[in-house]
């Protein structure tokens, strides 16, 4: 019997961190785990690990472990912007 994890809890974080070996799911580079891993708060703000919904919440994706991955704050933001831009997959050049 496993206890139900609270959405986006520390347990989710630890499990995902372990599964991804501390690497960003979007760019594949290492993420700092805690604020003190980086020199400046401004770096932390961009590089900190955040929960990314594989199926976006807007698209009905649940707050469940299967639908979550960890990604840098900047990578997460970039992805969110791309998805918000429509679904035709075209890239403006
Ligand atoms: Zn990244």
Number of strands: 2
Q: In whole angstroms, how far apart are the ends?
A: 52 Å
Q: Helical segment tally?
A: 3
Order of helices and strands: HHEEH
The kinds of small molecule bound in this structure are: zinc ion
What do the pLDDT scores average to? 86
Spatial sequence of strands, sheet with the most strands: 1-2
Strand portion: 5-15%
Largest sheet, described in full? 2 strands, antiparallel
Shape category: globular
> Which stretches are poorly predicted, pLDDT < 50 over at least 5 residues?
86-93
Rg on CA atoms, Å:
14 Å
Q: What would you call the structural class?
A: alpha+beta
What is the helical fraction, as a range of percent? 25-40%
Summarize the structure.
The radius of gyration is 14 Å and the shape is globular. It has a domain at 32-85. The protein contains three helices and two strands; from the N terminus they run ααββα.
Descriptive tags:
single chain; alpha+beta; two-stranded antiparallel ribbon; 32% helix; disordered C terminus; binds zinc ion; HNH endonuclease
């Amino acid at each position: 019997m496993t206890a139900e994890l609270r959405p986006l809890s520390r347990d989710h974080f630890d499990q995902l961190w372990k599964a991804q070996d501390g690497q960003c799911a979007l760019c594949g580079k290492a993420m700092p785990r805690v604020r003190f891993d980086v020199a400046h708060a401004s770096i932390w703000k961009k590089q900190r690990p955040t929960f990314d919904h594989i199926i976006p919440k807007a698209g009905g994706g649940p707050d469940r472990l299967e639908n979550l991955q960890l990604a840098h704050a900047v990578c997460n933001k970039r992805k969110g912007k791309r998805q918000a831009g429509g679904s035709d997959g075209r890239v403006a050049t």
